[in-house]
Amino acid sequence: MEVRNKLAVLEYGALTADEVIAYLELKGLIDDSRLMKVYAEELMRKNYGYKRILLELSNKGISEELIGGLKETYPFETEIERAICACTSKVRKTGSAVTKNKKLKLKEYLVRRGFSGGIAEEAVRSIEE
User: Fold this and answer.
1) What is the mean pLDDT of residues 87-101?
2) Contact by Cβ (8 Å): 52, 111
3) 77, 114 Cβ separation under 8 angstroms
4) What is the mean pLDDT of residues 29-51?
């Protein structure tokens, strides 16, 4: 999808774009499954949750079929660890005490980063301890 958009910006027609993409795929220079894996790993390192990763992959133009396959290999067991890491990082940056209002904002922050409400709740609870 990104190659097609770039070619459109450079004012190449749809037929030419299709031919270029087919050639690049044939040569192994475009591989959406590899892109998906590498990009998902990068987003996990940045402490994003599953839902946000799916959204970002879709925005990159990865097919729904490939994205659907991610669920089978996604490390859900690390989801809470990444949420806690994102939460503690946010608390460190703000430097203030964790009040009731701050807990609510932290939960909202984690949900925006793609974590489920339950994971966000658990992560915020863990930093209280």
Assistant:
1) 87
2) no
3) no
4) 91
Q: What single-letter amino acid sits at 92?
A: R
Task: Give the per-residue pLDDT at 27.
Answer: 83
CA 53/CA 56 separation, integer angstroms: 5
* Segments making up each domain of the chain, as ranges: 1-30, 78-128
Task: Output the six-digit token pair for 48.
Answer: 């994003």
Joined together, the tokens standing for residue 10 give 């450079």
Extract the tokens encoding 99: 């009040």
**What's the predicted TM-score (pTM) here?**
0.80
Tokens describing residue 111: 């949900």
Measured from the Cβ of residue 84, the count of other Cβ atoms closer than 10 Å reads 19
Say if residues 114 and 50 touch (Cβ distance below 8 Å): yes
Residue 106: per-residue pLDDT: 94
**Residue holding tokens 């959204």?**
55
The alpha-helical segments, DSSP class H, found in 27-112 are 32-45, 50-59, 64-73, 79-94, 100-112
DSSP 62: -
